[in-house]
């Protein structure tokens, strides 16, 4: 291995700088873990155990007001000098791709504040769902002393199920209109909610939405989550929401332990999947890449089914 150049700290030095609160070291570390490569893994190993920060997932349909709510929550915690980390997971979809710019503008309110650290991440790991990098990024913010760590994702698919694994508390944000409730139930959004927020409750239909949610959550097996009405743009309902989140951090120690166990399992599975796939596709002799090209030709010209091609590829798997 090459010895580190003077500009590149060892993983141990890098980890120490992050723990000491060096923001640039943190930013560089986030880039490393987002790349999901060996340097990121070395940094995480050097960082050792982390995990006391309360991780709060905020999810819900596009445009429900998640970022506005996050910004308002950040302001509420900052008023008590809490250092807050925010991971905004970029949906990287052509339909919602423009959202990030809006998010950045909303977050500009906190741009000069050392006690707030905001970072956008790509939503998809190599295997879909929440990138493994999101767990790692949350660890880095945690190690750097941010507590809580907020994770915003657009709840449009598997990602919102995953977020409930990455988070200690999952806030599901809905807004009146546009069939949100039906969509939310379809996507399993209601099942993962620890707290339900009806945002934009200055708009018509908020009370109807609250009522619909109330009857929907009564059908859940688990304890019904509290429902909070907010107007994020005016800060209304924010004190109540914040109190609920802080209350969970303080009280639900047993539940948090179970959550964190589930999180560790999901995370290890994701890492195993990734390593196995890497090993498979990047076999030293390049055989798999060649086999893939051949199989693809066969499937494309109709001489082989995809299932047959997969069986042949996996049949040749040695590890
Ligand atoms: N009337 C009203 N508008 C709101 C409220 N909260 C947010 N908005 C507006 O709703 C729009 C969307 O808000 P965002 O915070 O970007 O919503 P989001 O859920 O983060 O959106 P995506 O990240 O694109 O999924 C913005 O124009 C906000 O100003 C609210 O409580 N009432
Ligand atoms: Mg947003």
Q: What would your notes on this structure say?
A:
By secondary structure, the chain is of the alpha/beta class. Mean pLDDT is 82; it is low at 93-102. The two termini are 26 Å apart. Strand 2 (84-90), helix 5 (99-107) and strand 3 form a beta-alpha-beta unit. The longest helix has 29 residues, at 253-281. The chain has helices at 11-19, 23-34, 38-47, 66-78, 99-107, 132-143, 159-166, 180-186, 189-192, 206-217, 238-251, 253-281, 287-300, 306-315; strands spanning 55-60, 84-90, 116-122, 149-154, 169-174, 195-198, 227-229. Helices cover 51% and strands 12% of the residues. It contains 14 helices and seven strands. It has a seven-stranded parallel beta sheet, sandwiched between helices. It folds into three domains: 1-48, no CATH class; 50-266, Rossmann fold (3-Layer(aba) Sandwich), CATH 3.40.50; 283-315. The chain binds guanosine-5'-triphosphate and magnesium ion. The site of guanosine-5'-triphosphate has 19 residues, from helix 4 and helix 5.
Structure described in brief:
The protein is an alpha/beta fold and 319 residues long. The chain is built from 14 helices and seven strands. The protein has three domains: 1-48, no CATH class; 50-266, Rossmann fold (3-Layer(aba) Sandwich); 283-315.
Q: Give a short account of the largest sheet.
A: 7 strands, parallel
Q: What is the C-alpha radius of gyration, as a whole number of Å?
A: 22 Å
Helix content: 40-55%
Run of helices and strands: HHHEHEHEHEHEHHEHEHHHH
Quaternary class:
single chain
Which hetero compounds are present in the coordinates? guanosine-5'-triphosphate, magnesium ion
CATH class descriptor name of the largest domain: Alpha Beta
- Round the mean pLDDT to the nearest integer and report it: 82
User: What is the strand tally?
Assistant: 7
Number of distinct helices? 14
Q: What is the annotated CATH architecture of the largest domain?
A: 3-Layer(aba) Sandwich
């Amino acid at each position: 291995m090459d010895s580190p150049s003077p500009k590149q700290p060892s993983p141990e030095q890098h980890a120490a700088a992050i723990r000491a609160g060096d923001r640039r070291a943190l930013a560089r570390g986030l880039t490393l873990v987002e790349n999901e490569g060996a340097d990121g893994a070395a940094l995480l190993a050097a960082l050792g155990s982390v995990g006391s920060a309360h991780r709060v997932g905020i999810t819900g349909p596009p445009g429900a007001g998640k970022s506005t709510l996050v910004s308002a929550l950040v302001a509420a915690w900052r008023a008590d000098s809490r250092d807050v980390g925010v991971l905004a997971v970029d949906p990287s979809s052509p339909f919602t791709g423009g959202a990030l710019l809006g998010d950045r503008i909303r977050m500009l309110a906190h741009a000069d504040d050392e006690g707030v650290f905001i970072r956008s991440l790509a939503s998809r790991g190599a295997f879909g769902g929440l990138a493994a990098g999101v767990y790692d990024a949350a660890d880095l913010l945690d190690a750097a002393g941010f507590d809580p760590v907020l994770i915003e994702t657009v709840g449009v698919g598997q990602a919102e199920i995953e977020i409930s694994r990455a988070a200690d508390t999952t806030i599901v944000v809905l807004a009146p209109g546009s069939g949100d409730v039906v969509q939310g139930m379809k996507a399993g959004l209601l099942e993962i909610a620890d707290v339900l927020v009806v945002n934009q409750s200055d708009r018509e239909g908020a009370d109807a939405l609250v009522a619909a949610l109330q009857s929907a959550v009564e059908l859940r097996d688990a304890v019904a989550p509290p429902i909070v009405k907010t107007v994020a743009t005016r800060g209304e309902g924010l004190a109540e929401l914040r109190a609920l989140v802080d209350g969970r951090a303080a009280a639900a120690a047993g539940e948090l332990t179970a959550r964190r166990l589930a999180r560790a399992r999901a995370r290890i599975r994701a890492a195993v999947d990734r390593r196995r796939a890497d090993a498979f596709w990047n076999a030293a002799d390049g055989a798999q890449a060649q086999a893939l090209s051949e199989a693809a030709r066969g499937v494309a010209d109709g001489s082989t089914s995809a299932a047959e091609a997969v069986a042949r590829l996996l049949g040749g798997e040695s590890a």
